[in-house]
Amino acid sequence: MTMTITEPATTSPQATIALARLLAPVPAENGFAGHAVALSLLVTWLAEGGRESGRNRLLLTYLREHPDAAAVLSKRLLAFLTGGDLSRLFCDAGLPPRSALVEEFSTRLMHRLLPAPISDRDPSVLISRLSGQGNTARWIDALHPLWVAELLATLPDGPELWNSVHKEIADGMEVIALRITARSEEPEMRYRSGAADLHESPFQQLMLAVRDLAVEVHGAKVSTSSITLVQQRVAVCRVALKEVHDYLERNGVRVDVVFWLNRIRQQLARILVLLPLIEPDCATEEIRKRGIDYLRSISVDERRKLLLGSLLKDNYATLSGRIVENSRHTGGHYITDTAKEWRGMLLSASGGGIVTGFAVMFKAFLHYLHLPLLLDWAMQSANYSGSFLFMQLCGFSLATKQPPMTAAALAEALEDDRHLHDITNFAELCSRIVRSQLAAVVGNLALVIVVTLGIDAVWMHIHHAHIYDAQQALEQMHSFHPFRSGSIFFAIITGVALWLSSIIAGYGDNFAHYHRIPQAVQQSPVLVRWLGWDRTRRLGAGLTHQVGQICNNFFLGVMLSTIATLGVLTGTGLAVRHITFATGTFTFACCSLGMHDHHREMIWAVIGIACIGVLNFGVGFALSLMMAMRARDVPLRDGRRMFGRLFGYFLRNPVSFVLPR
Questions:
Q1: Is residue 312 part of a domain?
Q2: For the chain, is the Cβ count within 10 Å smaller at the N or the C terminus?
Q3: Is 379 exposed, middle or buried (0-12, 13-18, 19+ CB in 10 A)?
Q4: Are residues 270 and 327 in the same domain?
Q5: How far is it, in rounded angstroms, from Cα 383 to Cα 83?
Q6: Is 117 contained in some domain?
Q7: Does the model's pTM come out above 0.85?
Q8: Does residue 245 sit in the same domain as residue 339?
Q9: What is the mean pLDDT of residues 63-89?
Q10: How far, in Å, CA of 276 to CA of 294, rounded?
Q11: How far apart are CA 133 and CA 173, in angstroms?
């Protein structure tokens, strides 16, 4: 949308009186801030009327008929441009001013609630205020160069206004180049950009090129070759930034460094936007048009600065991609190809079922102890985390942890095959995932039932009593009822916890790679002295892909225990419903009640446990798949279309989803 100069003039007395008030002189003691506020009020009034009101044309008419008002506005604009540090309009406006992500986020949140005050030296705050209002933002977007030309022609100091701007643009560019160079010398940046010598740094060379250009601008002798050199230096800096970004993707991501990279990219883009404004031998009309285009661009940038979601998305996208990639690498171990691997998964899951059976027993014993809440939380956390870590140490697997890990591999296949007519590769991967998951479920549940039956039999032989008495057994049965208890909701919460633990695993692997934890372990003098070089080297190599899983197992146990503790603290009855633990608890309850009574309760409990399993697997898998698809920019509609075609493949080859060929 562009604004033409043929708008009908608004001649209503109310509009004329309002304009006269807005163009009244500002008291001298109000200084720069007073002129900035007065300009803000004038622009807001012009924008509130909309394009059809003709207020822009009325302003031009009023200034021609009232030279004193034109002088006031000219003085106001000149004071605004020369009274403050105008270079900040070019080096600060629209760019993130903070050097840390958390600080930038908190500042944006505060400015969403309360706009920043206008200081005595910063004209960029005025642009920020105007851009944050819908009407004024649209008014800026609709500015027409002809209307601006007419406005400047009506002002006594119109030509002088641009002359005061020209040198400030060069100063703003120089400030930006200095900031880029300073940030590029941070250790996280310098040693990952490939420039060993300080003087060979592309950022250092950019600063020198911009400084030489600024000297030419101040001397009114700008050459095209200097502008071209700056453009070339910017291109080289962008290549260096890509090297740093690629290094992070290979060796671990740090969000603060990603924030710095994004900030430098925006600053480099700003330099390129400012260069056309100082080109030599450029027609006045063209320069004015470029100036308006720049004003529009910083208005858009200022509006983007207020968006919290885009800030988080831009800076966490790389970390999210790294987490998904780590999950894909881990998930590959849970996908079986051959019959031998499938049997190995079944045995691994059987080991996990054995460990879970004993964890269910310890959980029941902790219930009898009636420990203080904090101590009970610590013991429950130790029980959960300890059992998960022991599974990892022994190479056992837990079925519910597989879906969040395998979802990343599935998203990669979606990205590769979504445009292909033949989905055989994608379907075969899905069948391998499903049958691997079924093997893990069967192994877990079968052995947890066997182990809990054995534990109850041994306990009965020694103490002549079951693990649960009849009342506790009935309470446990009722707690699994799908409709008369909170099992469905609790299973969803548990599925979310399983998904969060997979994110923690990916973050743990990323942390280990970025900080080179395995190498630090291999080079530890203390470990070398205790274990020797060979054992220390093997220990470090073993940690390369295990740190994430250690974090996963530990924090998953803590989260499951914390959920139940929060239920006690809040009195809401919030609890955990995990299919493997629920199956073990159900088996203990059946041992106490026997198989001849309470058939109705048992049937409903079985249905409830089946629902728990579906939700544990489904919620964790769905959340992980959506995260992986977003990280790979795979639209959800492509996923729905592929899974719709997968159903036809399943009808033709159902056995492949259960047993290996």
A1: no
A2: N
A3: middle
A4: no
A5: 68
A6: yes
A7: no
A8: no
A9: 82
A10: 10
A11: 27
